[in-house]
Structures are given as C-alpha cells and as structure tokens.
Amino acid sequence: MSKLDLRKKYKKLRAELSEEEIDDLSVAVANNLLKLPIWEQSFYHIFLSIQKQKEINTEFILHILQGKDKNIVVSKSNFENNTLEHILLTDATILKVNSWGIPEPIDGIPIAEEKIEVVFVPLLAFDHRGNRVGYGKGFYDKFLSKCNAEVIKIGLSFFTPEEKIGGILSTDIGLDYCVTPSKFYTFN
Questions:
Q1: pLDDT of residue 99
Q2: How far apart are CA 83 and CA 34, in angstroms?
Q3: How many H-runs (helices) and E-runs (strands) does the chain carry?
Q4: Considering its fold, how many domains does the chain have in total?
Q5: DSSP secondary structure string, 41-83?
Q6: Which CATH number characterizes residue 9's domain?
Q7: Where residue 111 falls among pLDDT bands split at 50, 70, 90?
Q8: Packing angle, helices 19-33 and 59-67, rounded to 10
Q9: Tell me: the pLDDT tens digits for 21-32?
Q10: What are the strands of the beta sheet with 71-78, ordered from one edge?
Q11: At residue 72, does pLDDT exceed 90?
C-alpha cells in the first residue's frame, strides 16, 4: 500500500478511537516498552503527543523515564526547513502548544543529536521490515540522519504492522523496534 493510502487509513482508524481507548492503549504501549533492552542509556528523545491527531499519549512513557532518572529530550519544530531543535526537558521547561497542535519547549538547554541514544518515533503505520509512515514532512528522517549510528529508534503504534509499505525512499530511516499495545517488534 502507498504511503498516501496508509496515511488516510491510519488517520481514520485513529479518529475512531475514544480518549479512554487512547489512554488504555497508551498505557499498554508504555508497559510493553519496559520489556525492551534499552534502559541502560542516558539520553532519551520523546515526542509530545498531538492530541488533535489522536497520537499515543506519551505522558505514561515520560513518567517511566522520570522514574528511571533519565535525561529526557523534546523537540521544537522549524516548519520553514522541516527540522527539529532538541531541548533537555527539566522542571523549569515551559511548554506551549504551537499552531500545529504540537506541545513544544519555549526555550531551554539545547542537546546535540549525537548525544541522544534512544528516540521514540511518532508514526501512522509501520511494516514487518521496520519501515514507517509519518505525516510526510520528513522531520524525523532528517533528525535521525544526524544521530550517531548506534541510536536506538523505537516506533510507537496503536496498530499491528502492514505487510509492506510501498514507495520507501533511500532517505527513509527504518526502526529498530516498534511497540504496540499487545507486543513489540524487532527489526534489523
């Protein structure tokens, strides 16, 4: 199936989820995340959920990271060149929802991509090979291409994988894992 068709399909599936279902599924994803061999790292990048897109509620993962005393990194979007600036999330970090509905830090301590060891990647769909479909702007592919080669890339999904995503480009960066409410998938 093409990326465009998959975007339509999964936006529709998400739209059908209630807030309660999103929270229940998000808790299950967070619990399955605990089974991954990723907890020895120090710097974890996490996306902050866009509520109007009915994304996975990453608040539960944030609590896990805080409980494990990890360095949490969040991003600020630049829509002029589709890039992300990475900021350390601290108690003093002020978040504001931008015009796209994305909660972002107003300012803070910048963190270089090379320092980030684990990235939780937003997506609409993924396949059995670890390919993913996002919103189509390339923010995460650009970001991940600047990270060190050992960075662990983890997709988070409410849904099971597609057999195969069509139209994968050489600039598309695949996942190492994808975590769903019922299990996790390992790639590479």
A1: 86
A2: 29
A3: 4, 11
A4: 1
A5: -SEEE-PPP-GGGT---THHHHHHHHHTT-EEEEEEEETTTTE
A6: 3.40.50.10420
A7: very high
A8: 30
A9: 999 999 999 999
A10: 83-88, 71-78, 43-45, 118-121, 152-156, 177-179, 184-186
A11: yes
